[in-house]
């Protein structure tokens, strides 16, 4: 009968669709099982293993990853690396969760501040045994701040390839115009404000200082340089509303509002970039501006130095690290990949970009990284100096959510000029609630771990 | 007869199967999840009413609920009125009418991210009269200084509604045929009685098209409750000005891994939508006129 | 005078007198100004897609670019995987259109033609599923699909379509109800079975509603965002809407506005073309109870 035929056709379609996809998975995992065994037994068998390696980033990052992979292939025959470029925050963590939930995680996972929230849930591999069991590898040559950011409660889950701190870039032409001295490593916030006031020219749309408080590192830089912090050291208390913290936040508010020398959200024009078009005196932001400035600035001279000091220097440092999924089926191979990607050969490829700082101290201090030839900025070496006052993000279990509520509150203070005293109690409530939840979850996760 | 019954089941079986697997089953599962703490990566844990308690004590929930209500109470009536007004204009076939009909319908097929991203730029408020988007640029041409839209707490929600209104064409598609079905005899009879245009609209036209009006009202209410993409792409400077229940749900489920909480939220939404639908149905009896068979 | 009497030509328009004449003038003024308001955003973005980034946001608005930057459309293909995204969208949309139309049509036929004590009740259940917010099922569906290992494939975006969609079933049932049963009966007497009646008698008469549902499905899935956002993580599998979303400036540093505009405009072309070709069917396809006799 025709209608039965019709249903058969529909069912066949369904099965085909499912099969296309399922069969791929099935066949590849069959292969994997075989190679897995050979790896576990320690022999370097001839079977090829494919390691999936997920990361986020734009064209620059993709090119770098591919270049490193090429080098990797030169020394390694039987590990295939499948690079998977995923969309960045906030979709990245979801993509990872999804893969893990379906029992098919990427073997190697680039992660930044979310590292801990995944590690706590027991889905990331403890790299300790791999590090100890590998004679070719040691954590010592790495910048401590990089390793620390991915070591949670004494367990190292990720190894970073690159890091960078908040820096200050300045438009030399604007300083010359007003007969001002260029800022240097010792420049304080007071001096920045002073210079900013002179440089700011609203009629021409010129601001002394770049927008403030748009992301965690900007807020953190103010807090830390003022001796304050968002959370207590063990991430159990909200400390942003300490007297020092309040003072730092009020200073940000003042710079943007009363003094109006840094644009608020509404003053940032659509369709043009304030810094590269020469409308910002001092840009306080991440080191990626080195590359984008080299590419996009031709109308003025510029240079860079450390981010301004308050009571102390502060260089919030961000990085990302390569983690291994606990559910990976070829952990030995994944470790080989992580090791190579964070090793000297890979880092030299990164260093040659003269952007983010390599995490291996030797590579960072070498000419490969520091010698820019004729390109600006002259003071590129301060990139290394910034690491003296470096510290990582306060990436607790609830990082992304705490970060978000803090950001919202800061936006109200900075962009809408709401009184700090009105905003802080509400923020404290919200963050405390999240910290309580974090504590509750932590207990559960710790219990789960013990059960295992 | 037995064969007719069997055929009935046979033909509707895809729906029955789909309903069981994709709606009924998941609904039961979601009910269960709403009483658990579940983050996908670690096992679910029964926590009773905790999710519901946390939900109602969560300030964010009340923000997004009141935003959603704003979109429903302000956006839906505007949508229906505008849809009706344009449909009435478009009804009579006059030279050029198909051009006009197309012009109004077009925006409604552009529902995706592409057009919303563009709206984001169209609503750019600019600064000091410079770098402004389309809307404020137009307003400045007639001497009005436009509001800050997304960056202004009072205008962030209207901005979202404005963008949604642009897509009113979908409803016009349903209203127009309804208007065309209004009995010409009745209208002529009303003419002979000397009824005014207003009177004719409310005593002849509106009763006839009321099922269509009811239909689009119901669909709009439901769609507005589910609104997600607009506040995602055109968020207020402070997201709590514009976020809807659905955005809150998405964030909790897929960004903060709170599947249990998100499920509880889904059930609260379900309940709210049900109440609204029932209220709508109740009042519908008073104004929706069904032709007797 | 019946004010809904069609006016077929300009000549006829000129013959209008008195009140009718003024009414029609007012109507044109209203229509033209409303059309301008509705079309301006499109005009602005089309003009923006041909401008250099710096020129898009100038005051007063310039409608004609000072220099036509056709590169924006070239860049769209060279520095943005436009073709791949469009292809992915097409795959998703195509399968959905085929599956949902066929399955909804079959179910609608069942409801429209076969008597059963539960017919009314179940049809009401179909309508009721439209009221169920999909978020109630979102999380478990996601868990189910990830358990099946279907995440990061198109299956979660396509398979549910194989079982009909409430709105489509509703529209199609209403349409089938308007087809006289006598046609079925005479075909039955000629020896057709119910499925042949569906394919040979009902389907040809239902072309307008089938096309309407097809267009709705196309638009819905072409514009769908939440589904791909949740289920797809590999950018190589992204449909256009998700690709554009990741192109948005906030995520990637300095925005190439001209290219973003060009890509967005291009994303609008397929639904536009489909509408242009199939416009007349849509108007004929919508038949709601009460508005049309039957």
UniProtKB/TrEMBL annotation, chain B:
Known Gene3D superfamilies for this protein? MetI-like
Q: Where in the cell is it found?
A: Cell membrane
Task: Give Gene Ontology CC terms.
Answer: plasma membrane
Q: By its UniProt entry, which PROSITE patterns does this protein fall under? A: ABC_TM1
* Membrane spanning stretches: 9-33, 69-91, 103-122, 159-180, 201-222, 264-283
The domain of life for this entry's organism is: Bacteria
Q: Which UniProt keywords apply?
A: Cell membrane, Membrane, Transmembrane, Transmembrane helix, Transport
Indicate where this protein is primarily found: membrane
Q: Which residues form the ABC transmembrane type-1 domain?
A: 65-280
Bilayer topology: Multi-pass membrane protein
The Swiss-Prot or TrEMBL record describes its family as follows: Belongs to the binding-protein-dependent transport system permease family.
* Name the UniProt record assigns to this protein: Spermidine/putrescine ABC transporter permease
**Organism (species):** Salipaludibacillus neizhouensis
TrEMBL record, chain C:
> Start and end of every ABC transmembrane type-1 domain?
86-278
| GO annotation (BP), single | transmembrane transport
Q: Which residue ranges does UniProt annotate as crossing the membrane?
A: 21-44, 85-111, 123-148, 154-171, 201-222, 257-278
Q: Where in the cell is it found?
A: Cell membrane
Q: Give the keywords, sorted.
A: ATP-binding, Cell membrane, Membrane, Nucleotide-binding, Transmembrane, Transmembrane helix, Transport
Top-rank taxon of the source lineage equals: Bacteria
A GO MF annotation of the entry reads: ATP binding
Note the topology in the membrane. Multi-pass membrane protein
- Is Glycosyltransferase set as a keyword in this record? no
Cited InterPro entries: MetI-like, MetI-like_sf
Q: Name one GO cellular component term.
A: plasma membrane
Family that this chain belongs to: Belongs to the binding-protein-dependent transport system permease family.
Please report the name of this protein according to its UniProt entry: Sugar ABC transporter ATP-binding protein
């Amino acid at each position: 009968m025709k209608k039965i035929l019709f249903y058969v056709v529909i069912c066949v379609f369904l099965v085909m669709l499912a099969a296309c996809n399922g069969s791929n998975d099935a066949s590849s995992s069959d292969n994997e099982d075989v190679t897995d065994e050979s790896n576990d037994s320690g022999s370097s068998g001839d079977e090829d293993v494919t390691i999936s390696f997920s990361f986020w980033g734009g064209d620059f990052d993709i090119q770098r990853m591919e270049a490193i992979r090429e080098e990797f292939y030169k020394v390694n025959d039987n590990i295939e690396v499948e690079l998977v470029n995923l969309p960045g925050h906030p979709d990245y963590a979801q993509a990872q969760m999804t893969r893990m939930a379906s029992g098919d995680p990427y073997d190697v996972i680039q992660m930044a501040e979310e590292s801990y929230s995944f590690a706590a849930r027991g889905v990331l591999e403890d790299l300790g045994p791999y590090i100890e069991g590998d004679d070719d590898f040691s954590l010592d040559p790495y910048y401590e701040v990089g390793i620390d950011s991915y070591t949670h409660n004494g367990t190292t889950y990720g190894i970073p390839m690159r890091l960078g701190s908040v820096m200050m870039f300045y438009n030399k032409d604007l300083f010359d115009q007003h007969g001002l001295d260029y800022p240097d490593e010792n420049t304080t916030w007071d001096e920045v404000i002073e210079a900013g006031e002179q440089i700011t020219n609203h009629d021409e749309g010129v601001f002394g200082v770049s927008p403030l408080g748009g992301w965690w590192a900007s807020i953190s830089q103010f807090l830390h340089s003022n001796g304050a912090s968002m959370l207590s050291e063990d991430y159990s208390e909200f400390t942003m509303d300490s007297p020092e913290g309040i003072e730092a936040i009020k200073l940000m508010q003042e710079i943007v509002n009363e003094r109006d020398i840094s644009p608020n959200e509404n003053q940032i024009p659509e369709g043009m970039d304030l810094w590269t078009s020469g409308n910002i005196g001092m840009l306080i932001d991440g080191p990626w501006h080195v590359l984008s400035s080299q590419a996009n600035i031709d109308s003025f001279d510029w240079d860079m130095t450390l981010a301004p000091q308050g009571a102390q220097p502060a260089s919030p440092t961000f990085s990302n690290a390569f983690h291994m999924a606990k559910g990976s089926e070829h952990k030995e191979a994944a470790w080989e990949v992580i090791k190579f990607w964070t090793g000297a050969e890979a880092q030299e490829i990164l260093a040659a970009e003269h952007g983010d700082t390599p995490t291996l101290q030797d590579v960072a201090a070498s000419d490969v990284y520091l010698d820019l030839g004729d390109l600006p900025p002259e003071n590129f070496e301060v990139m290394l100096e910034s690491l003296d006052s470096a510290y990582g993000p306060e990436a607790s279990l609830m990082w992304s959510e705490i970060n978000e509520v803090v950001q919202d509150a800061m936006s109200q203070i900075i962009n809408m000029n709401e009184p700090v005293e009105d905003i802080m109690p509400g923020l404290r409530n919200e963050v405390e609630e999240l910290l309580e939840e974090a504590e509750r979850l932590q207990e559960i996760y710790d219990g789960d771990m013990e059960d295992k | 007869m037995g064969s007719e019954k069997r055929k009935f089941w046979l033909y509707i079986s895809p729906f029955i199967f789909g309903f069981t697997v994709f709606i009924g089953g998941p609904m039961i599962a979601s009910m269960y999840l709403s009483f658990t703490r579940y983050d996908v990566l670690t096992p679910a844990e029964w926590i009773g009413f905790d999710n519901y308690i946390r939900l109602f004590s969560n300030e964010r929930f009340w923000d997004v609920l009141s935003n959603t209500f704003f979109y429903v109470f302000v956006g839906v009536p505007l949508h229906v009125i505008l849809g009706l007004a344009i449909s009435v204009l478009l009804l009579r076939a006059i030279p050029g009418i198909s051009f006009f009909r197309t012009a109004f319908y077009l925006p409604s097929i552009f529902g995706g991210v592409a057009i919303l991203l563009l709206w984001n730029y169209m609503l750019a408020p600019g600064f000091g009269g410079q770098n402004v988007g389309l809307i404020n640029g137009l307003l400045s041409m007639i001497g009005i200084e436009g509001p800050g839209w997304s960056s202004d707490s009072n205008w962030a929600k209207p901005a979202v509604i404005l963008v949604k209104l642009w897509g009113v064409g979908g409803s016009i598609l349903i209203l127009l045929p309804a208007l065309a079905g209004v009995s010409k005899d009745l209208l002529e009879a009303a003419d002979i009685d000397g009824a005014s245009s207003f009177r004719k609209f409310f005593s002849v036209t509106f009763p006839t098209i009321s099922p269509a009006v009811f239909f689009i009202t119901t669909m709009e209410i439901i769609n507005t409750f589910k609104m997600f993409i607009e506040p995602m792409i055109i968020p207020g400077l402070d997201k709590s000005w514009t976020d809807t229940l659905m955005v809150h749900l998405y964030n909790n489920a897929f960004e903060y891994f709170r599947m249990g909480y998100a499920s509880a939220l889904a059930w609260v939404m379900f309940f709210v939508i049900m109440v609204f639908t029932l209220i709508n149905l109740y009042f519908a009896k008073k104004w929706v006129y069904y032709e007797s068979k | 005078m019946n004010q809904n009497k069609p006016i077929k030509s300009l000549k006829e328009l000129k013959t209008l007198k008195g009140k009718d004449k003024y009414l029609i003038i007012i109507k044109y003024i209203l229509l033209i100004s409303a059309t301008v308001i509705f079309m301006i955003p499109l005009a602005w973005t089309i003009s923006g897609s041909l401008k250099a980034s710096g020129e898009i946001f100038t005051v007063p608005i310039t409608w004609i670019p000072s220099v036509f930057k056709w590169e924006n459309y070239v860049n769209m293909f060279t520095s943005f995987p436009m073709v791949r995204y469009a292809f992915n969208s097409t795959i998703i949309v195509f399968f959905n259109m085929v599956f949902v139309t066929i399955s909804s049509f079959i179910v609608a036929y069942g409801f429209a033609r076969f008597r059963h004590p539960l017919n009314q009740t179940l049809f009401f259940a179909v309508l009721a599923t439209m009221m169920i917010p999909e978020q109630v099922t979102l999380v478990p569906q996601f868990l189910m699909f990830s358990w099946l290992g279907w995440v990061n494939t198109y299956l979660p975006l396509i398979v549910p379509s194989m079982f009909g969609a409430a709105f489509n079933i509703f529209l199609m049932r209403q349409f089938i109800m308007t087809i006289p049963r006598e046609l079925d009966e005479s075909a039955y007497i000629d020896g057709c079975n119910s499925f042949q009646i569906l394919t040979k008698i009902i389907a040809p008469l239902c072309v307008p509603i089938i096309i309407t549902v097809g267009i709705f499905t196309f638009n819905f899935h072409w514009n769908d965002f939440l589904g791909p956002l949740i289920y797809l993580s590999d950018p190589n599998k992204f449909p256009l809407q998700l690709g554009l979303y990741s192109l948005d400036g906030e995520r990637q540093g300095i925005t190439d506005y001209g290219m973003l505009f060009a890509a967005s405009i291009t994303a609008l072309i397929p639904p536009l073309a489909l509408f242009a070709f199939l416009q007349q069917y849509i108007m004929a396809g919508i038949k709601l109870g009460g508005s049309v006799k039957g």
